[in-house]
């Protein structure tokens, strides 16, 4: 299912934070939303998953205009700040969130075993989340996001604060989801992560300053560093 955004705008109070965005995310690809803090990445994800209404414009998943309940059920979302229950174990959290889906108890238990294995938390299934490290919490959040086998995964800074070794493991996991046909929309301000993605949407002050395949984006830079494209945007803003 492709995702098509057309003239999407969003304000908070009098501040326009998403400024007339139009672009399309291709099914089966990894698309990263890149941008400095405050550029609008989380807001854009919230608009796409139907957590926030757009002020104007349309968001379509395939032929369906959002929000649409049937489509929403096919999405997985990993928020920037872990939405976990500290006083429950990893298993308890998965059981709770799994209970929100129409999955039979036995099938849910089997799926919990599967996702714990995918994120390498099987040995910690009984541990309370309050005793988890930041990286373990991220992996548990990811397990929750994939519990219902979503077709499209929205990941909001999934590797923020994660060490490079674990980050590499997590990205390997994303690539394996992609190989199984999952579309992934991932926000990051770690510029190095862009090479893991098929396309990059560069956001600056709520505007889409670039959207292209990653090789083409890198070609547009003098140094092969994606940061250059942001420097160019900030210089042109300073001149205007
Ligand atoms: N609920 C809200 N009410 C008012 N302003 C908001 C709200 N949510 C976001 N904003 C503002 O909208 C702008 C975009 O914020 P957003 O969180 O989407 O950026 P971001 O690119 O995800 O940043 P970060 O990388 O720091 O997470 C910021 O100026 C932010 O202060």
Automatic annotation (TrEMBL):
Query: Which InterPro entries does the record match to this protein?
Result: AAA+_ATPase (IPR003593), ABC_transporter-like_ATP-bd (IPR003439), ABC_transporter-like_CS (IPR017871), P-loop_NTPase (IPR027417)
Q: Which Pfam family name is an example for this entry?
A: ABC_tran
Looking up SMART domains in the UniProt record yields:
AAA
**Alphabetically ordered keywords of this record:** ATP-binding, Nucleotide-binding
GO molecular function per UniProt: ATP binding; ATP hydrolysis activity
Q: Where is the ABC transporter domain?
A: 3-230
Residue ranges that the Swiss-Prot or TrEMBL entry lists as coiled coil: none
Whether Phosphoprotein counts among this entry's keywords is: no
User: Which SUPFAM superfamilies does this UniProt record tie to the protein?
Assistant: P-loop containing nucleoside triphosphate hydrolases (SSF52540)
What PANTHER family does this protein's entry cite? Answer: ABC TRANSPORTER G FAMILY MEMBER 20 ISOFORM X1, ATP-BINDING CASSETTE, SUB-FAMILY H, MEMBER 1
Supply the name of the protein: ABC transporter ATP-binding protein
Q: Specify the species.
A: Planococcus maritimus
């Amino acid at each position: 299912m492709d995702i098509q955004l057309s003239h999407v705008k969003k304000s908070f109070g009098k501040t326009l934070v998403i400024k007339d965005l139009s672009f399309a995310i291709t099914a089966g690809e990894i698309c990263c939303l890149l941008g400095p803090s405050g550029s609008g990445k989380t807001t854009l994800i919230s608009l796409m998953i139907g957590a926030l209404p757009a002020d104007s414009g349309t968001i379509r998943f395939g032929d369906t205009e959002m929000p649409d309940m049937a489509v929403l059920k096919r999405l997985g979302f990993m928020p920037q700040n872990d939405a976990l229950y500290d006083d429950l174990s990893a298993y308890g959290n998965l059981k709770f969130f799994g209970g929100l889906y129409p999955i039979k108890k036995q099938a849910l238990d089997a799926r919990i075993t599967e996702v714990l294995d995918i994120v390498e938390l099987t040995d910690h299934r009984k541990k309370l989340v309050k005793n988890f490290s930041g990286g373990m919490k991220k992996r548990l959040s990811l397990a929750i996001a994939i519990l219902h086998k979503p077709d499209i995964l929205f990941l909001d800074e999934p590797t923020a604060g994660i060490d490079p070794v674990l980050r590499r493991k997590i990205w390997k996991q994303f690539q394996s989801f992609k190989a199984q046909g999952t579309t992934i929309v991932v926000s990051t301000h770690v510029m190095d992560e862009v090479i893991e993605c098929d396309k990059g949407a560069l956001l600056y002050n709520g505007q889409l300053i670039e959207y292209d395949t990653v090789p083409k984006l890198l070609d547009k830079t003098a140094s092969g560093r994606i940061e250059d494209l942001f420097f160019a945007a900030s210089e042109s803003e300073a001149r205007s």
